[in-house]
Specification:
Length: 82
């Protein structure tokens, strides 16, 4: 969630998360730093978000071109915070 990166604490938590993941053998992460509100607005007004590109399971895609079910799943993931 974008708000996770707006404070020093949030940024430190993200850095710690990535370092721990890599230390444990992880080799790939992907993030979309976009708010759920932006994604929901893109569903309602796709004409205003033609350039919104997001990461989906290892590839990039234009959000408004995705199936609505996948859009909703991405919105759910976006609302997760730590």
């Amino acid at each position: 969630h974008p708000s996770s990166l707006q404070t020093e604490k949030g940024l430190k938590q993200l850095v710690a998360l990535v370092k721990t993941y890599m230390h444990l053998g992880g080799n790939h992460v992907q993030w979309n730093v976009v708010s759920a509100d932006t994604l929901k607005d893109a569903q309602l007004h796709p004409e205003n978000h033609r350039d919104l590109i997001i990461r989906v399971a290892g590839f990039s895609a234009f959000f408004i071109q995705l199936d609505t079910r996948l859009q909703n799943e991405i919105i759910k993931r976006t609302e997760f915070t730590f």
